[in-house]
Write the structure tokens for this entry.
Amino acid sequence: MKACIIGAGFIAAAHVAGYEKIPQVELCGIADIRAEAARALADKHHCRAYTSALEMLQKEKPDAVSVCVPTHLHREAVCLALEQGADVLCEKPLALAMEDAIAMRDTALGCGRQVMTAQVLRFWPEYELISQKLAQKLSGSDWGPLLRLDARRIAHSSRGDWFGDPQRGGGALFDLLVHDLDFVVSILGCQAESLYATGHQNALGGWVHVNALLTWPGGIQVSLEAAGDMPLGYPFTMRFRADCENGCLDFTSQSLQNIATAQQVSSQLFCVEEGQARPLDPGTFPEGANGEAFHRQIRAFVTGVEAGRLPIPFEQSIYGMKLIHKIRASLETGCKMILDDI
């Protein structure tokens, strides 16, 4: 299988590392309009550099393409790769505008190809263990019903103006909260009933700190916090807790940089049941849980391309984007949103 990457930034490097660990994949090209960035990453990994994605796709004819460019450029890159006959792994968030997400879906259908959003939490060792353990406990009766999910993703901004620009990066709402919202959808499904959100905007109008409360059938409450405006030096922090009537799962991780490049400074996952808390061990990973997660994500994508069925249903990604837009509507209006129309 031949693979190419559009984009040569820090997240592209994580995709490169994932492809290189899969024997049946030949990484053959990296394209970026910044010639030096494309050349540096390509030379490091012994493949060809391009400044034109179209030229790369036409010359290399890849089976799989990772799209790792800023969010406002996703639609153009994804549709181009699909039209050139490749299946696509697109970095999150899928898009800033719903019409862009719909256009990607329609292009994939029209070309007979597939698109998968790179929601790396689904492949993160601790989050995978949480998902498996919660499903196991909820299939029985000893933990009782699920009451609430609580997720937080807190960081300082280190990516310049594009991250907080609502027209390019979308701020914490699109870049950070989308991680945990997708993980919640993977657990609870596409059935949210209502939501309400509060937050803080930067000078550009981007939502850089968001708190959202959503409800699912059965009275399940979901609380989400995403922050990209913390003081410089604040550790990148991920937290997730699932509360049942008679049991609980709790995960906290802090790193010095960001989700893709940093080693964890501290990480703890524990389970509370029968009146006791005990640690859960997701395993030991030489390159850290973050490196393992990106490798698992790429492996799952490659396996899905080979099988003709990708592991993350694209309609779940579309649904997640609809929820993000409803959260933004709540932020802008100060109103509770009833979700009977999505």
